[in-house]
Amino acid sequence: MKDQIIRKIFNGLIYIHILHHGNEQCFYGSWMIEELKEHGYNISPGTLYPTLKSMVDEGYLLKEEKNVNGKIRKYYKNTDKGNELLNDLKENLKELVNEVL
């Protein structure tokens, strides 16, 4: 049960992390996997890419395809809606952290 709860919380935090980086700069999926790994998340492409697709479909991220050395690479960045969500999540997280700690 403990591991399931921790996993659910980490999964939610992944969305915040994606939006955080999408606000700062364009990123591509394999870079995000490595970035998340540096913070202790072990996320597979089979988990990340559907997450990114759903965030694009819901209007939180924009996707741009670029040709890099003959391969198409998908870059992501926040939409205005994504930035609004990020700001809301940061406020909620700040309130929770202040209360719990």
From TrEMBL:
It holds the Pfam family PadR. Residues 18-86 form the Transcription regulator PadR N-terminal domain. Gene3D superfamilies: Winged helix-like DNA-binding domain superfamily/Winged helix DNA-binding domain. This is PadR family transcriptional regulator. It comes from Terrisporobacter othiniensis.
